[in-house]
Amino acid sequence: MGANGGAGIAVTRALLAKNYAVWATVSRPEKIADFRSHLPGCRDYIALDLAKADELKADFSRWLAEIGRVDAVIVCGAVAPFAPAEFTSFDAFRQTMEINCVSNLAIYQSSLPFLRETRGRLVLTGSYSGKVATPMMASYVASKFALEGLVDVMRQEAGAWGVEVVLLQPGSIETPMVYRSQATLAQAIENLPSQEASLYGKLYRQMKYRADSAIEARTFTPAQAVADAALQAVEAAVPETRYPVGSDAENLVALSRSRSDREIDELVLEIYRSAPV
According to the lineage, what is the superkingdom (predicted)? Predict the structure, then answer.
């Protein structure tokens, strides 16, 4: 699911390369033709809206019934808006939670009856932001922390039928969304309301400097790394419960286990303070 995003395309391509039978979902109906032209090997394509969990559950359940046998479901879709918590709108927060967390519950409820029959796998995509928070990402961080706990409950319950629920934890992955976010951030800085600019303008500029520097230095992890982790999660006899993807994710997830909250706050904030803005 979420096959038309950067990571989703990489996962779909990797599955097709290994001759898996793949059914792909995209975010909107108008995306289907373009996706089909780039990856024509999928058995079928359907548009499912992760922002509408009730409709998603009903539509996905019907589609799975048409497919019949389901051995694995892999979910890659997410959104990552940025704003300080003080100025994050409730609508933006709710939508982020719906897409990044609630939709995963809908997918789980739809797919579990089918995965139960095959002792299959459900592979979801979280983030290192589900373990370590960073400024300006309040709704994204909250959604990924929530998904961490939800996955633990799913794994504990689904394990009664041999169904594995696995969470990928990518770091900064090189996808088109990276460049769209950079442009959106630049535009947001230009149009900040006066109060928000006064209180958080420096933090916005620090965030943009970090994003610009990462793009210039090409320090992002290739999307293929997500595909490799997804294949491991599907093919391992006993998969790991979580797969950090990228050195930044591996380092931050490890820090979340070994450092105190105050120590992690200082490490994260020092990265922002080091920006020459």
Answer: Bacteria
Q: Identify the band that residue 74 occupies on the pLDDT scale cut at 50, 70 and 90.
A: very high
Query: Into how many domains does the chain fold?
Result: 1
pLDDT band at residue 181 using 50, 70 and 90 as cut-offs = confident
Strand partners, 124: 167
- In contact, 236 and 120? CB cutoff 8 Å: no
| Residue range(s) defining the domain that contains residue 235 | 6-273
> Which pair of structure tokens corresponds to residue 217?
């230095």
- Domain assignment present for 46: yes
Residues in the chain: 277
CATH number at residue 188: 3.40.50.720
Which pair of structure tokens corresponds to residue 265?
């706050």
Residue 175 is predicted with a pLDDT of 82
3-class secondary-structure state, position 80: coil
Q: Is residue 1 part of a domain?
A: no
The per-residue pLDDT for range 208-265, each reduced to its tens digit, is 998 888 888 788 899 999 999 999 999 999 999 999 999 999 999 999 999 999 999 9
Which candidate, 215, 232, 235, places its Cα nearest to that of 224? 232
* Distance separating alpha carbons of residues 221 and 249, to the nearest angstrom: 10
Query: Residue 220's CB: how many other CB atoms inside 10 A?
Result: 17
∠ Cα 139 124 214 (to 5°): 60
How many CB atoms within 10 Å of residue 42? 18
CB atoms within 10 A of CB 234: 22
